[in-house]
Design brief:
Elements: H1 4-15, H2 22-36, H3 39-46, H4 49-57, H5 64-78, H6 84-90, H7 94-101, H8 109-119, H9 123-135, H10 141-149, H11 162-169, H12 173-179, H13 186-190, H14 200-213, H15 220-224, H16 231-235, H17 246-251, H18 269-282, H19 286-294, H20 297-307, H21 311-325, H22 343-394
Helix pairs in contact: 2-5, 5-8, 7-8, 8-11, 11-14, 14-18, 18-21, 20-21
């Protein structure tokens, strides 16, 4: 029996070559795909970079089945951050991905989006992705946004994972500057996707991008102005069917007034949390706080807090409410993002956050156990009813 190293050598030398017989290549790529599906296999492939290079080269194989297996394998490999540098630098995978992404007839574009999303999670490789994106003649951030916003750009792919890719890219100031360019109207094109019901992935990617952009407090007034009007797009996913007073309704943005009885809130907890964090960022400046107060954001948050069951999300909502109904900071401390916190105070706040997080984890664990117990009781009750039906039938 061949050792792992001998098997790898055979794969690299003979089976993963473009000129190898298709049936042999097919078996080899299936083997690579199997290896890539678990941590030990990825670790082994990391020690055999030539095998990874060969796999990437076969992503362009004439056989669709072989190319598809290689794309699947690279999705698995790109989920491991320790392989990012190998894929980006030695395999030089990015130009191939970008060239195929702009092809509206390429059948594996969804796989490309997932790989790019994985590779851009961490800042180091995210910089490489953005750099190559801008250098590629057919691509660039404008083209990426155009593809993302064009319905049925590729009829064989949903391209939803371009959302997380955009969110990852906005970790970097260069990408944020592009989205916040007041002459391009990029943010305005993305806002409707905060309520895109078809895909949680796409919706979450856009909300993540908006949150990252809101770390640049100098743009807050513009984002909240009529030129962008970001507030309704953040509040609508958190608003429910609860009846508000006429006074509360009239102060709200028009799109949030007198909502229907069947109004549903954002179902994904991570997206709800990101929206709350975005709103919290917009309260960092005095102008932002005043606008959110004048637009009656508090009643929406009040009802949301009553509805929300996730402790970690409820905690963020409470912080936002405290800012909305609390006193204004003293003079010179109006911009919360520019306030310098003494080291000892920062350490105490960090400890308090850790304690709060531990308490929330305990609450979530208790809630999970209660749900499991209720589910078990319901299953037992169903089983008992079924047994009774059977006994009656037999009788």
């Amino acid at each position: 029996m061949l050792s792992d190293s001998e098997s790898a050598e055979l794969l690299e030398t003979f089976f993963l070559k473009p000129e190898t017989r298709p049936d042999v290549k097919g078996h080899a790529t299936e083997y690579i795909l199997g290896l890539s599906a678990n941590r030990d296999g990825c670790r082994f492939l990391r020690s055999k970079p030539d095998m990874v290079v060969a796999t990437v080269s076969l992503m362009s194989d004439p056989s669709f089945a072989i190319a598809k297996d290689c794309y699947h394998a690279v999705i698995n490999l790109s989920a491991d951050p320790t392989l990012h540098e190998l894929l980006v630098k030695r395999c030089d995978i990015l130009p191939l991905l970008f060239r195929n992404l702009v092809d509206p007839n390429f059948q594996l574009s969804d796989k490309i989006c997932t790989i790019l999303s994985n590779l851009s999670r961490h800042k180091n490789t995210c910089r490489s992705v953005l750099k190559l994106l801008e250098e590629e003649a057919t691509m660039g951030l404008p083209k990426l946004v155009e593809i993302f916003c064009t319905k049925d750009f590729n009829k064989m792919a949903s391209l939803h994972y371009l959302g997380p890719l955009l969110s990852n890219l906005t970790q970097l100031p260069e990408a944020r500057h592009f989205l916040l360019d007041r002459d391009r109207c990029v943010i305005q094109r993305l806002l409707p996707y905060t309520q895109y019901e078809t895909s949680t992935v796409r919706r979450g990617g856009v909300v993540g991008s908006l949150r990252n952009c809101c770390f640049d407090h100098t743009h807050h007034e513009w984002l909240l102005s009529d030129a962008v009007d970001i507030l309704p797009f953040l509040l609508l996913p958190l608003a429910g069917p609860e009846e508000l007073t006429d006074e509360e309704n009239e102060g709200l943005p028009v799109d949030l007034q007198y909502l229907s009885e069947d109004k549903k809130r954002e179902p994904d907890p991570d997206i709800r949390k990101m929206i709350l964090e975005t709103l919290l960022l917009l309260t960092a400046t005095k102008a932002g706080r005043q606008l959110l107060q004048n637009k009656k954001v508090y009643p929406i948050m009040r009802e949301f807090h009553r509805w929300e069951k996730e402790p970690r999300i409820g905690a963020v909502c409470e912080k936002l409410i405290q800012v909305l109904i609390g006193d204004e900071p003293e003079e010179g401390m109006e911009n919360l993002m520019e306030v310098k916190i003494p080291d000892d105070v920062a350490e105490k706040l960090k400890e308090a956050d850790c304690r709060e997080e531990e308490e929330m984890k305990k609450e979530e664990e208790e809630m999970r156990k209660e749900k499991e117990e209720r589910r078990t009781e319901e299953e037992e009750e169903e089983r008992r009813k079924e047994e009774e039906k059977i006994s009656v039938t037999d009788g």
